[in-house]
Amino acid sequence: MTCRVHAVVIGAGPAGCAAAFHLARSGLQVTVIEAKAFPRVKVCGEFISPAATGYLEQILSADELRSAGARTVDRFVMELGERERVFRLPTPAWALSRRGLDVLLAAKARESGAEFMQPASVREVWYGGAGVEVLLADGRDVAADFVIHADGSGRHDPAGSVASDSRLVGHKCHLRVPGGIDGVRIRACAGAYLGTIAVEGGLATCALAARKELIARHGGDADRMVRSIWPGFDPAWRDGPWLACGVQRSGYVQPGHWRSLRIGNAAAADRRGVRRGVLRIRWRLDSLPRDVATGAEEAGRTVGHRHGLHRGGVDVVGDDDAGEAELAPQEPVEDRRREH
Questions:
Q1: Residues of 68-86 as b/e, b for ≥16 C-beta within 10 angstroms?
Q2: What is the pTM of this model?
């Protein structure tokens, strides 16, 4: 039996759950469809930067985050051979594994009134003037005024998936490092960079992006590759296997239908933003519920485009970098030789 809601959200990661939370709290009927059961381990740096902490704390209080084991981070450290440079973040960031964060955000979305279909896989989405219909692999379907793509790729939007860089592969694992990890630590070599950060439960996240030729040079052995970048790394620290995925590299992807919105990585993975570690697609948490509600009332009219629906509910930051300066690490406060 087909049910009708204001919005279907595909994907229950941070972007999808945040969208569902705000939409449901605004009184709209929302169904979230997520393919994986939670908790899950996912390839992710597990660092919520100062640019995103305000949005996160609109949903989860600092006390709730700390109760889940989240850690605050105020230092950004770059290791350069035998030396390191320490930068102070302008405001503290959060570090929490996706295993923990996804569960917390999904619970908040449910509390706000969002319905979940999980685990459930989307087979296809039909778009029409009267609404959209989301068809699931198990035969169920959901009708809605709009569909919000938050699955990391936007594969079910008529415009297609966000492009990946065929030259790169992302890796991630959790470590138990003797003495722990202090701050966000970045190491690099030609063709790769490696980041580590402490998360909950005595674990540290180790995330790596590398060119395929560098991976091949090490025989596909991620441990060997990491040791070439981080000589002190011991594979015995690993608390589980290496996970791998593609690395998205694209600018903003215009949704292929006015009833389709794209948020998070399904909207873009801008090349400049990846290089500089600054998310250049900023989702408008405050306007999305209004846009969806307004668009639903005016369904079938071209004025839906005037409410930003054709832009996927995101702000596209231009070439000027206004607003980035206050979010970037400050000048280095320490430049010292590392102790072994």
A1: eebbebebbbbbeeeebbb
A2: 0.83
Query: In whole angstroms, what is the distance from residue 307 CA to residue 295 CA?
Result: 7
CA distances from 18 to 13, 55, 125, 190 (A): 8, 9, 22, 37
Amino acid at 259: R
- Tell me the C-alpha distance between 108 and 103, whole Å: 9
Q: Does domain 3-44+100-162+252-327 have CATH number 3.50.50.60?
A: yes
* pLDDT tens-digit map of 209-258: 999 999 999 999 999 999 999 999 999 999 999 999 998 888 889 999 99
Question: In 64-130, where do the E strands start and end?
Answer: 71-80, 83-95, 115-117, 122-128
**Interior/surface letters 169-184, b for 16+ CB within 10 angstroms, e for the rest:** bbbbbbbebeeebebb
Q: Are 30 and 113 in contact (CB under 8 A)?
A: yes
Please determine, for residue 275, whether its predicted confidence score (pLDDT) is greater than 80.
no
Nearest-5° angle of CA 193, CA 225, CA 204?
Answer: 65
Does the CA dihedral 271-274-280-282 come out positive or negative? positive
In whole angstroms, give the CA distance from residue 126 to residue 99. Answer: 32
Q: What is the pLDDT of residues 101-124, one digit of tens each?
A: 999 999 999 999 999 999 999 999
pLDDT band at 293 (very low <50, low <70, confident <90, very high): low
How far is Cα 117 from Cα 202, in angstroms, rounded to an integer?
Answer: 32
Give strand pairing partners of 31. 8, 115
Instruction: Indicate the pLDDT class of residue 334, thresholds 50, 70 and 90.
Output: low
**What's the rounded Cα separation, in Å, for the pair 205 and 184?**
10
Fold for the domain defined by 164-247: Alpha-Beta Plaits (3.30.70)
Query: What's the helix, strand, coil split of the chain in %, to 5?
Result: 25, 35, 40
